[in-house]
Please model this.
Amino acid sequence: MQKKIALINDVTGFGRCSIAVMAPIVSAMKIQAVTIPTAILSTHTQFPIYFFDDYTPKMKDYIQTYKDLDMKFDGISTGFLGSLEQVEIVIDFFKTFKSKDTFILVDPVMGDYGQLYKTYTPEMCEKMKELVQYADVLTPNLTELCTLIGCEYPTERVTIKQLEDMCKTLSAHGPAHIIVTGIPINKTQIMNFIYNKGEDFQIVMVDRIGGDRSGTGDVISSVIAGMVMNGHSVYESVKKAAAFVSKCIKYCEAENVPNHWGLCFEMFLSDLMEV
Model:
C-alpha cells in the first residue's frame, strides 16, 4: 500500500516554503502527502506585505477528523510552530498517531545565527524540548541545537568533538539521528553533521552557493523524510537532500531568482522520482 506522511506546517501561497514545497517533494517520491496547516499565508513574512491567518483555533477540529477516521500514518514531519499551543497540539498528534512503525522527522525551526525568533518564549523552548523526544530524525541548525540542550551559542568555530557531545546530550532524550544542518566551515563550504546514536558520526559537505534562500530547510527535511521512508539510510538521505538543494540553488543563481522567492525545486523534481 502507498505510504502516507502527515505534514504539519504553514501553507504559503507564494515564496516556495513550508507545505507548498514539502507536499510536491514527497509526492514525487511516491508518498501521499496529508497536510495539517498551522497557518495560511499569501506570501511568507520576508515579503513586505502578506496575508496571515493563524490556524491554531481550528487545528484541533481539523485533526479530529483524522482521529475519527482512525487514520494511520507511515510518517510525520513538522516544521515551524508559532505558539505554545501549537507545540502542545503537535505533541498530542504524536501521542495519537505514532505507532512503532511511524517515522517522525522534526525540524525545530526556532532561530538561526545564535538568535531565537521573536515568537519563541522560554516556555515554548521548554515545550519544544518535550516535542523533540518523539523524533526519530531531528534536523536542527547550530542555534537550535544549543537551545534544545541549554548551552551557549559558540563564539568560535564549533569543533567536531563539541558537535558530537552536544548531539549525544540531546539524543539521550529521544532522537536516534540528529542532523545539524548548515554549519559554515569557511567561505566556500558548509557542513552537515550527522549523529547516529550508538554509531559513528558522518559528515556531508556542500559548496556554499549564494545567500540564504527561504524554504531551503523545508526542502531538505522533506527530501530526507521521503528518502528514509523509502528505505534509504539517513546518510544517503542527507547526501541526496544536499545534492538536490545545491542543484536548485545553482539554477536560481544562474537565473537571478530573488532569494525570498525560494528554490526553483520544480525544475528538478524528476531527480526524486526514482528513489
Observations:
- The two ends are 17 Å apart (CA to CA).
